[in-house]
Amino acid sequence: MNHGSYGLNTRRLAAIWVPAFIVMAIIFILSSQSYEQQSIKKQLSLVVHRTSLGDYLSGMKFQYGSLTIDGNKDGPEGVLEFMLRKLAHYIEYFLLSVSLLRGIRFTTSLRLSTAILMTAFLSVSFAVTDEFHQQYAIHRGARPQDIILDTAGVLTGLLVYGLLAIRKKRKLVNTYKTEGL
Hints:
7 helices, membrane, transmembrane helix, Phosphotransbutyrylase, mainly alpha, transmembrane
């Protein structure tokens, strides 16, 4: 997979890096919006009220940093929306790390381990700057817990990518051994 950027035309190079830039743009845009602009509580209330899920979520109460999530106070849709927001953090940074690592692997000759470390640093740095950015967005705030959650998404993405790359390499080596290539 270490092709280096030699021989890659502009179109191919763009195809390799555009996914990472799209993910970064989505993260930035969503971080610029207020919670009210992103709220889906109304739609969620149609799904969760009068269901066993609604009853379960109504009874939940937990802390996330200085924020208290309370199903009785926020309603089941408030709890579910909070959980979906945090899941979105995780998924965004999973996708960011995979797309960045893919770009680095296809355009450099770095070893997998070095590319993973570089990607981890870049992805977590982006998470930190994103939280910094949220301090200045209207009706938003920075939460260190979100950086931890983002980092978990990054590490999971890197683990999945790394395991798949190793598996692909082993399969290729076994093909050479069995076919005598």
